[in-house]
Design a protein that fits this description.
118 residues, 0% helix
Length: 118
């Protein structure tokens, strides 16, 4: 499992105002990609399972913990994301109500210098 800060930028293109956008990594070489939004209530968990595709788990609101194959829990909160590779065992827990965007792909996630690894 790798953890990153989500880069946030003010969007002013197209005469936009009042917009902050977090940028997920680009998907490269994919034939299939899906995007899900999950809300996990405090104390809830997405149980331990093997990633069937590469997966980004980006926290949009709230706080929780995630673990990779080693089972070691690490904190994840709004503005942070975890990336699990295909086949990697993982689990997540919500400490507070937590909203996440989950992107699954058979491609690979390409992070940039703006995605600071933790």
């Amino acid at each position: 499992m790798r953890r990153f800060e989500l880069p946030r930028r003010t969007i002013e293109a197209f005469e936009s105002t009042g917009v902050q956008m977090d940028f997920l990594p680009r998907v490269v070489g994919a034939t299939e990609t899906s995007v899900h939004v999950a809300t996990v209530e405090p104390g809830g968990t997405i149980g331990v399972h093997r990633a069937t595709k590469s997966q980004v788990f980006a926290v949009i609101a709230g706080e929780g913990q995630v673990a990779g194959a080693d089972g070691l829990r690490v904190a994840l909160s709004a503005g942070l994301m975890a990336i699990w590779e295909v086949g990697e065992m993982h689990q997540s827990w919500a400490t507070t109500a937590m909203s996440v965007v989950i992107v699954e792909s058979d491609g690979r996630f390409e992070t940039t210098e703006h995605h600071r690894e933790l």
